[in-house]
Specification:
The complex is a heterodimer of chains A (144) and B (192). Chain A is mainly α and 144 residues long. Chain A has a domain at 4-54. Chain A has five helices and no strands. In chain A, α1 (4-14) packs parallel to α3. With 192 residues, chain B is mainly α. Chain B folds into two domains: 1-99, RNA polymerase sigma factor, region 2, helix turn helix motif (Rna Polymerase Sigma Factor, Chain: A, Orthogonal Bundle), CATH 1.10.1740.10; 106-192, Orthogonal Bundle (Arc Repressor Mutant, subunit A). The radius of gyration of chain B is 19 Å and the shape is elongated. Classes of the chains: A mainly alpha (144), B mainly alpha (192). Chain A binds chain B through residues 9, 12-13, 15, 48-49, 51-53, 55-59, 61, 63, 65-70, 72-74, 76-77, 80, 82-83, 85-86, and chain B through 1, 20-21, 23, 26-27, 30-31, 34-35, 38-39, 42-43, 48, 51-52, 55-56, 59-60, 63-64, 66-67, 119, 122-124, 126-127, 130, 141, 145-146, 151, 166, 169-170, 173-174, 176-177, 180, 183-184, 187-188.
Chain lengths: 144, 192
C-alpha cells in the first residue's frame, strides 16, 4: 500500500505519466488514485509541471548543422593525423595516486616496525654488529 | 550527409577499432551520436553555437584519447554523455565570466498576459527557468526528461548515486515549477 508521502515523492520525481514510474510503484499509485482525492490533486499538479517542461524549446539539430560539425571534426582529425600506436611496454603508465601512496605507506610502516619496534625481525638484523675495533676520527681531531 | 551506416556494429566495437587508429570506425561512431550530443550540449550550455563547439571538442578529445578506452563494462553512450555533460558544464562556467555585453538577455519575470498568448513566449520563459537552474540540476533534467533516461542511467552519466540523482531531479522540477508559478496560474485561468 502506497502512502501519500511516497506518492508525492514519485510524482515530484517522475511527473504525472505513470508509464515513467517504476512498474510496482505505478501499480500501487493506481490503487491509491482510486480512492484518494489528495493523490489525484497531486498528480494533476505534477501534470501541470510536465506541461510546462514540454513547452521547453527542443534544440533543433538540422542535417546541415550536423554535417557542418562533422566536417569540422573530420578536418581537425585530418590535420592531426592518426595517433601513433605506442606499444604497451613502453607506454607511460597511468599515475594512480591511491595505490602509490598505499604502497609507500606500507613500506614505511614495515621499515619502522623492523628497525625501531623489533616486532618484525629479519635474519642478521637482530644481531648488532661488533664495533669494538672501530676507531672513529672526527674532523676536529678527536679520537674515540 | 551519407546514408547511415550498418547499425549492427556495436558502439563498443567501433570504439575499439577507433582506439587502434581506424578513422573510418570513428567516423561511423561520430555520425551515430553527433546529433544527440549536440542537442544534449545545447540543453546544458543554452545556445546553438556553443553546443556545436562543445560537441566538436568532445569528439576530438575522444579521438585523441581513444587508446585509453577500456570499456570496463561501461556503455559507450554513458561514457560519451558523461564527457558531453562535463564539457558543457565547464564551457558554461567559463562563459559566466564573459563580458556582460555577451550575456544572454534574461527573461523578465513580470510578463504581461498578452505575451503569454504567444506559445513561443511561453517556451522562452520555460527555457529561461531551466537555464537558471544550477548546472547539475539542469543536466539531470535534460538527461531524465528530454533524453528519457532512467534515473539509474542518468546517475551513471553524472557519476552520482541514484538517490542523489533523484534529489537533483526533484529539486530541478520544484525550482522550475516555483519560477513559473505565474505561468501555471495563467494556464489554469485559461482553462474553460
Amino acid at each position: 500500500m502506497m502512502t501519500l508521502k511516497q506518492f508525492t515523492r514519485y510524482a515530484s520525481l517522475h511527473g504525472a505519466d505513470l508509464d515513467r514510474w517504476p512498474a510496482n510503484a505505478a501499480h500501487a499509485a493506481q490503487e491509491l488514485l482510486g480512492h484518494s482525492d489528495e493523490a489525484r490533486a497531486i498528480l494533476a499538479d505534477a501534470a501541470l509541471t510536465d506541461a510546462l517542461l514540454d513547452e521547453a524549446t527542443n534544440p533543433a539539430v538540422s542535417l546541415e548543422r550536423e554535417q557542418r560539425v562533422f566536417e569540422r571534426i573530420a578536418a581537425r582529425i585530418e590535420e592531426q593525423g592518426v595517433p601513433d600506436a605506442v606499444p604497451w611496454f613502453i607506454a607511460k603508465p597511468p599515475l594512480r595516486i591511491v595505490p602509490t601512496v598505499g604502497f609507500l605507506a606500507m613500506m614505511g610502516f614495515l621499515g619502522f616496525m623492523t628497525y625501531h619496534q623489533g616486532i618484525i625481525t629479519l635474519p642478521g638484523a637482530a644481531r648488532a654488529p661488533d664495533l669494538s675495533g672501530v676507531m672513529i676520527v672526527s674532523s676536529l681531531g678527536g679520537i674515540r | 550527409m551519407q546514408p547511415r551506416e550498418d547499425e549492427t556494429i556495436s558502439d563498443e566495437a567501433l570504439m575499439a577499432d577507433a582506439a587502434a587508429g581506424d578513422r573510418k570506425a570513428f567516423g561511423l561512431l561520430t555520425r551515430r551520436h553527433l546529433r544527440r550530443s549536440i542537442a544534449l550540449a545545447q540543453r546544458v550550455v543554452g545556445n546553438a553555437s556553443d553546443a556545436e563547439e562543445v560537441a566538436q571538442d568532445v569528439f576530438l578529445q575522444i579521438w585523441a584519447n581513444a587508446d585509453r578506452w577500456r570499456g570496463d563494462g561501461t556503455r559507450f553512450t554513458t561514457w560519451l554523455y558523461r564527457i558531453v555533460v562535463n564539457r558543457a558544464i565547464d564551457y558554461r562556467r567559463r562563459r559566466t565570466f564573459a563580458p556582460l555585453d555577451a550575456a544572454e538577455e534574461m527573461a523578465d519575470p513580470a510578463w504581461s498576459a498578452e505575451t503569454l498568448v504567444d506559445g513561443r513566449k511561453i517556451g522562452a520563459e520555460v527555457d529561461a527557468a531551466i537555464a537558471a537552474l544550477p548546472d547539475r540540476q539542469r543536466a539531470a533534467l535534460s538527461l531524465c526528461y528530454h533524453e528519457e533516461m532512467s534515473c539509474a542511467e542518468a546517475s551513471e552519466v553524472l557519476q552520482v548515486s541514484v538517490s542523489a540523482m533523484e534529489s537533483l531531479l526533484v529539486r530541478a522540477r520544484k525550482t522550475v515549477r516555483a519560477r513559473l508559478q505565474p505561468l501555471i496560474r495563467q494556464k489554469d485561468g485559461a482553462r474553460p
